[in-house]
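Hi support team,

I submitted a single chain yesterday and got back a structure, but I'm not sure I'm reading the token output correctly. Could someone confirm the output below corresponds to the sequence I sent? I've pasted both exactly as they appear in my results page.

Thanks,
R.
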Amino acid sequence: MKSNAEKFFFSDFTRENYRRLIRLAKEKYVFRNYNDFNNQERFILWRHDVDFSMHGSVKLAKIEAEEGVAATYLLLLHSPFYNLLEHEITTCVREIIGLGHIIGLHFDTSYYQIRNEKEMFKWLTWEKGILGDLFAQNISVFSFHDPSNILQKFPDLMYEGMVNTYSQYFQTKVGYCSDSNGYWRFRRLENVLQESSDYSLQVLTHPEWWQDVVMSPKQRLKHCIDGRAAKTEAWYAEVAMRSGRENIDWN
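Hi R., thanks for writing in. Yes, this is the structure output for that exact sequence:
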């Protein structure tokens, strides 16, 4: 009987292996972004839905830049793991942009309890404006966060001047591979790239699932949580020290 490590390919999700997969993808496909792909060529669109880790995003962005490819980083305005208005997080995003990557919007419809198209377009446009203004970028692509209940309602390729990564076109005309929840939910990326049976391909990865050492998905998530907590604690201690105040414990 296979262990979970074997069944869910824990060893796939290291940054060293990530670099190898990027190199393999380059052998099979032409890297494009969501605004310059040509359906007559064997293109690959590589995107990151950044749910938890902006620091992890920078690490993958550096690997991609070193390998001469660009990816699309879709940012969430309502993540409990990072705040785009924090100086350190803003710096991370600007570093990703500076490495030649594209940023877009990761849009969470559940935050607004959206009831109709009018409300959806209102908040989609609002978040696009916030993200664009904050980083002085033209936001031209978005993905739905946790899209299972909304895909059929919004099948068009474009909304509010942005490419919809979950449009019917991408669902029916372009192959797909995703690491959602820290494992290959549908197809293993290694196999997809080796076989390269998809004429064109969209790859979705989440930076938090890729670490320096082999971990289970639960450990990878805990690593993000503990890292966020440690940084917050260190920030408070530094602020207290700078202002000459005590950070008092029991002893």
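A quick pointer for reading it: The radius of gyration is 19 Å. Let us know if anything else looks off.

Best,
Support desk
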